[in-house]
């Protein structure tokens, strides 16, 4: 960090030379690394994450009046090997001071290394419960899946009065862990899972899986997949079972989903952190406006919000800490409670976040609040 | 019982589409002797074009655009990559690698152009037909008809026309044809063109039932095509179509007995067992000496 | 910068071992398989599970990994005794897919899609590898030893038999050589080497999941051998170096982040196509 007296001298120099304060500060911005997958089938979430950080940094730099932060982005393909290489590049070559990342195959590989280097790392996408406590310097701004799933299972059993559940999931990390957890929670409450079917990421026709589910006559289908895949699955479920209730998770919430699912999305229910991109809240409206201006499309995905919030947590904690590394980590743990456009960010001891979870749904082709079931813990 | 019939309906549907995959792969493989992996990118590219254009210019013109793209894509691979490599005396392995290279480039270009995520076709084709508790969608009704028509057309041309006899001769013994002074190039290109052009047709059959298409879903199309060919007996177009149909049908009906998470393992194990026990395929007569 | 480069070189040494082992099948014996990532994965999962489930040390775990991958590789050799060429390509591909399904579906053992976390780092004779430089030294040394051992192997009478099988199976058969035994043997040897690479891989990254060992990994190893030069040992090493380092260099070009990943893949594809045209025999030519 810049020594205060040096700064004064430099500012004096700068004033003498007739250049602004900002010109000096530009020489030493805080380097923010972003390590997400931008190629491959899940590249969309990576792109959203990059954009979320981008607009946050744009806003912070405008507020500071100089380039306070600079951004370095690498592609991890959401794979351990590419993730580690990207991490090494960001830390050793670009010299980043803080990292915003996601990917449940990448985080376990790099979290121990981040601890060694005392690099604060923000998880903005990996929801696997295994992400809890994977590193002292790792903070999850996104809620891990187990709590959301408990809320959904309870809502299905108690509020919707459903007894017979079915699940359709993509056979990857998110799909497998979510469905195992949902089955555990739902059967514990006294419900029964009458059909659990999966498909591979490269499959596009889920007809036979849906047929098996339909034959089991469930009250609802719990659906887990990437946004685009889940949209196609939603259409195929509704084609065979027009009246079945589909339950899913917050990752769905995006224009992409509505466009791809069409009318079949109607009535869908999902858990979400207290996130409403079309809210009147001036903070959220400003972000939505900035996003619209910069990328020419509506701000709809929560992944943009998580990335944005992570960057804002870093900036706010830095104000208190003054420098990155251990002081930044301590400052985050010290304050614990940060405002966020995806709901308030409150960290637990193990670095995971506790957020309020609400039930949202699709009505008339739009995402709307359905029920407030209360905050976690 | 209802479930079994419903799965059978799905099996006939998937089988019809896989029959087209099999025919497409077989036509190109038999006449070029190339493992045309890039077919996957041609497939997803043409399907993405159909989806992108269907809402603006209508479904039929969009399909036409997809067919044009697929034909040009297939011809481009043959004329721009495989043909020149073959003339340089490249081994089959090198051509396979080049084809994989084209696939990687193609998938990622498509991802830049269309985005990485799956797109679905939002065209209303009317509700399903429900008969005795069995739900049959319009796409499921249409697919077998289209498949029979396309395969029938291919077989008619192959066995009832002068051109078809030349294609058979080309598949059987290319050198002999060349000795007789017949230019094999145009015949081969025609087969590649037809084999590629039926890909978007198959894609539309899938898209009509709400399935998605992304730049990255092409590889299974090639593998199903290849498995169909080897299952049906190499160099047999009818065999490949039947092989494809069987894969689709068995893979679906098997779900009556096994969980869907084991479907891939089941299909590939079964395929492995069949070609180990009967390497000539179900309909094949003789084992062609490997070219690799 | 140093750690970044060291990290890349560790990856290069791992893939050099893998590519050399595949070349035993592909280049020396003429057996084209797309299942090498499966054998690689057996080694990685075998070692990781041995250490995690039984609490065994690194060396016994490597022993288990070698045994398991040799066994599976011998099993993969069975189709090669029955079918060849195009058939073997597809048969081995089917094996690759079945293996991937098993990794995902046997989640009670393999951890399923979520993979295995916190794999212990290699510890030999009380010395544990932790720093990137430790890994580089140890793994490079292992790669060099394998290189030497394999160069002795390919020059031996057995190695000559393999080349004879590659040229035409019938000839050694009529000379009374046991072609079947030779094929199984080379699959076992290639399996052991690939399994070792798997064990080393898991303990370096400390995390493995099914995606690490999918068909794309098989294709990557295949392209390393082909670009480097089949039927040589320097070739696969050069191919591994090239295909790991070149895409990394692209990180240094200021592309917009949204297309960066795609551009790197396109570059990888173009390298493959370029080599097919300009240097179809690979970087290193077989003598």
UniProtKB/TrEMBL annotation, chain B:
Q: Name one GO molecular function term.
A: transmembrane transporter activity
Keyword Phosphoprotein carried by entry? no
Mind telling me which residue stretches traverse the membrane in this protein?
Answer: 12-30, 92-114, 141-159, 187-207, 238-258, 264-284
The cellular location(s) given in this protein's UniProt record come to: Cell membrane
GO terms classed as biological process: amino acid transport
State the membrane topology: Multi-pass membrane protein
The protein's UniProt keywords, in alphabetical order, are: Amino-acid transport, Cell membrane, Membrane, Transmembrane, Transmembrane helix, Transport
Q: Is the keyword Transmembrane helix in the record?
A: yes
Q: Which InterPro entries match?
A: ABC_transp_permease, BCAA_transport_permease
Kindly give the Pfam families that the UniProt entry links to this protein.
Answer: BPD_transp_2
Q: Which family does it belong to?
A: Belongs to the binding-protein-dependent transport system permease family. LivHM subfamily.
State the PANTHER family in the record.
Answer: ABC TRANSPORTER PERMEASE PROTEIN, BRANCHED-CHAIN AMINO ACID TRANSPORT SYSTEM PERMEASE PROTEIN LIVH
Q: What's the name of the protein?
A: Branched-chain amino acid ABC transporter permease
> What is the organism of origin for this protein?
Pelagibacterium lacus
UniProtKB/TrEMBL annotation, chain C:
A GO CC term assigned to this protein in UniProt? plasma membrane
- Print the keywords alphabetically: Cell membrane, Membrane, Transmembrane, Transmembrane helix
InterPro entries xref list: ABC_transp_permease, LivM-like
List, alphabetically, the PANTHER family matched: HIGH-AFFINITY BRANCHED-CHAIN AMINO ACID TRANSPORT PROTEIN BRAE, HIGH-AFFINITY BRANCHED-CHAIN AMINO ACID TRANSPORT SYSTEM PERMEASE
| Predominant subcellular localization, coarse grouping | membrane
The record gives the membrane topology as:
Multi-pass membrane protein
Q: Name one GO molecular function term.
A: branched-chain amino acid transmembrane transporter activity
Q: Does the keyword Cell membrane apply?
A: yes
Instruction: Name its species.
Output: Pelagibacterium lacus
The protein, known as? Branched-chain amino acid ABC transporter permease
Q: A Pfam family in this protein?
A: BPD_transp_2
Q: Where in the cell is it found?
A: Cell membrane
UniProt xrefs under CDD domains: TM_PBP1_LivM_like
- Membrane-spanning residues: 31-49, 56-78, 136-154, 186-207, 219-246, 266-284
